Amino acid sequence: MALNPTDLFDVRSLLTDEERMIQDSVARFTDERVIPIIGDCFDQARFPAELVPEIAALGLFGSSLPEKYGCAGLNSVSYGLICQELERGDSGIRSFVSVQSSLCMYPIYAYGSEEQRERYLPRMARGEVIGCFGLTEPQGGSDPANMKTNARRDGDDWVINGAKMWITNGNLADVAIVWAQTDEGIQGFLIDKGTPGFAAQEVHKKMSLRASVTSALFFDNVRVPDSQRLPNVKGLKGPLGCLTQARYGITWGPIGAAISSYQCALEYSKSRILFNRPIAATQAVQLKLADMARRITLAQLLSLQLGRLKDAGAMQPAQVSLAKWNNVRMALDISREARDILGGAGITTEYPPIRHALNLESVITYEGTETVHQLVIGREVTGINAF
Ligand code: TGC
Ligand code: FAD
Fold first, then answer.
1. Is the pLDDT of residue 172 over 90?
2. Whole-number pLDDT of residue 1
3. Distance, CA 136 to ligand 2 centroid (Å)?
4. Among the atoms of ligand 1, which is closest to the Cα of residue 168?
5. Where in the chain is the domain with CATH 1.10.540.10?
């Protein structure tokens, strides 16, 4: 029996019925609602906000959080499959869901008070409140310990000053999770849109993640009550703990982008006739396609095992780094190579590979650059910190 070209090791057979059902329903959404419009959205640098209610109705926001807060209570493998299927459409759509789920709803759930959870999470699950996560600052995102944004205690309030850079959803967000230095270390604050002194400015001229909103955030004596501080975490482990959640999802997402690029190159190579035969009949193109299939298979197995470890409560941040590094690099290489197989046709957004390749230039940088993740593995295996 012929193998499935996009799943040579039948990784799907390792999923439960529920996981397969979730994958299929998100795949349908991507095929019917995302793929028909996303090329134009990318061209127009437009985030398709009209999809937000449908994403919410599918239960994709905060999907791993408990039903008590209006969330779907799914396992980590299901969350990964959601990321994979969304990014098969576009990294920007997956980013939107990653930020809302792992970087905004997760810290409110993990570090927030019960009152904060009840106030924000059900509305965020319904897509009525959109969040953004402000960690990176203009002076260098790889080293968040060098944080200049600060929060000073003033009676029952906090006064926040500083700036954040490259913040996904910044201009869309109803609430920003902002990390700031305090006398007791780094702490997280929930800053609602419209709070005096808080401003967001969209980043333009992007050649990557054009169907996603990216912004700079500014805080000029922003005053918030102590009830807007996340009470249950202090120190860099707060934001880094959120990054571990989001990076986990990002190990899966680029598998979707890679599958989309590979499928496109595979189809095209079978119909493109040069020198009296399809280019798929040449050894050079078959080598490229075989290599794509090999790397996608390895990435699928890596993320699935990572998900099983996470669901068993045994996942380590260094394992997440290895999978983020491997899978994003795999997808970036494959989408560039797929673009090449399409020749001139590959340079327009009529076909997905160039859009995926451009998007993945951001994905390989955000949530820890490739170098940062390589150095995390280097530290793990040598015991020596090279940062
Ligand atoms: P270090 O100072 O040693 O550790 C601080 C504390 O944090 C703990 N920790 C972690 N906890 C959970 N998950 C992790 N991945 C953790 N890594 C460290 C650590 O145990 C320690 O705890 P404690 O209790 O001892 O205080 O920090 P480090 O040396 O481990 O970190 C250095 C480095 C370079 C790895 C870290 O700073 C880093 O990861 N830098 C990259 C920053 C980054 O990834 N920024 C991403 C911003 S958000 C974003 O890009 C969103 S894109 C959104 C989208 O999808 O659209
Ligand atoms: P830098 O940290 O200045 O890195 C520059 C170069 O130096 C990189 O090549 C890096 O690998 C290298 N480098 C760093 N350290 C070392 C070292 N020790 N040795 C050798 N080389 C090193 N941040 C948020 O907080 N929230 C968001 O929602 C968010 N969304 C984003 C969306 C997009 C589209 C993008 C592009 C970024 C987003 N970011 C967000 C920021 C992102 O996390 C940072 O861009 C990333 O962490 C890198 O920081 P930087 O851009 O300042 O690069």
1. yes
2. 85
3. 8
4. 56
5. 11-125
With a 6 Å cutoff on the Cβ, whether 134 touches ligand 2 is yes
The closest alpha carbon to 124, from 56, 213, 171, belongs to 56
Is pLDDT above 90 for 205?
Answer: yes
User: Which H or E element spans position 296?
Assistant: helix 283-311
Look at residue 223 in the predicted model and tell me its pLDDT. Answer: 98
| Per-residue model confidence (pLDDT) at position 61 | 98
Q: Find the largest Cα–Cα distance for the chain.
A: 80
Angle at 75 between CA 74 and CA 81, to 5 degrees: 90
- Backbone φ and ψ for 186, nearest 5 degrees, come out as -70, 135
Which entry of 32, 367, 370, 380 is annotated as an active-site residue?
367
Take residue 62 and report the two structure tokens written for it.
Answer: 């905060």
Report the pLDDT value the prediction gives residue 115, as an integer from 0 to 100: 98
CATH architecture of the domain with residue range 11-125: Orthogonal Bundle (1.10)
CATH architecture assignment, domain 131-228: Beta Barrel (2.40)
What confidence tens digit (pLDDT) does each residue in 348-371 have?
A: 999 999 999 999 999 999 999 999
Any atom of ligand 2 within 6 Å of the Cβ of 190: no
The CATH 1.20.140.10 portion of the chain extends over 237-382
Assigned token pair, 105: 């709803």
CA atoms of 175 and 191, how far apart (whole Å)? 6
What is the rounded distance in angstroms from the CA atom of residue 364 to the CA atom of residue 143? Answer: 16
Residue 183 tokens read as: 């006398």
Whether the per-residue pLDDT at 89 is higher than 90: the answer is: yes
How remote is the CA of residue 376 from the centroid of ligand 1, in Å? Answer: 10
The pTM (predicted TM-score) of the whole model is: 0.98
CB 106 less than 6 A from any atom of ligand 1: no
Q: Which residues pair with 188 in a beta bridge?
A: 179
* CB-based burial label for 385 (10 Å; 0-12, 13-18, 19+): exposed
Kindly report, residue by residue over 7-60, the tens digit of the pLDDT: 999 999 999 999 999 999 999 999 999 999 999 999 999 999 999 999 999 999
- Cα 196 to Cα 18: distance, rounded to the nearest angstrom: 46
Classify strands 175-182 and 157-168 as parallel, antiparallel or unpaired. unpaired
Identify whether 115 is a catalytic site residue.
no
CATH superfamily of 237-382: Butyryl-CoA Dehydrogenase, subunit A, domain 3 (1.20.140.10)
